[in-house]
Amino acid sequence: MSRVDHERRRQADRQRRQGTEGADELGALFAKARAFKKRPAKADLRAEAEAAIAKVTREMKCDGCGHEGTVTVPASRRRARLRCSQCGGYAT
C-alpha cells in the first residue's frame, strides 16, 4: 500500500466551503510595504537625554513685594509660573 497525502484534498475542500481571498480583496495590507524605520544612534539618544535634563536660568521679579532673584529650573519647567520665596505671590 502506498502513502496518500490528504492535505491537498482537505485544503481544496476547505477553500471550496469557506471561500478564498485574493490579494486585491485584502486591501492595504499588500498595497504598499512599510518604510524601514532606522534605529537612532546612541549619540543622538544621549543628546536628547541631556537636553531633557538641562537646566535653565531665569530672572524673576515678584509683582507683589518687588523681590528679585535668579532661579535655575529644569528645561521642562522653564515656562512654569514661579512663586516668590518672600511673599508667596506669583513672580514674572
Strands in their spatial order, largest beta sheet: 1-2
Estimated structural class: alpha+beta
Tell me the Rg in angstroms: 33 Å
Low-confidence stretches: none
How is the topology of this model organized?
Elements: H1 7-18, H2 23-26, H3 28-31, H4 42-53, E1 55-61, E2 68-74, E3 82-83, E4 90-91
Antiparallel strand pairs: 1-2, 3-4
Task: Describe the model.
The protein has 92 residues and is α+β, with helices and mostly antiparallel strands. It has a domain at 56-92. It is 35% helix and 20% strand. It has a two-stranded antiparallel sheet with strand order 1-2. A hairpin with a 6-residue loop joins strand 1 and strand 2 (68-74). The longest helix has 12 residues, at 7-18. It is rod-shaped and about 100 Å long. The termini are far apart. The model has no long low-confidence stretch (mean pLDDT 81).
Short description:
This protein has 92 residues and is of the alpha+beta class.
Features:
alpha+beta, two-stranded antiparallel sheet, 92 residues, single chain, 4 helices
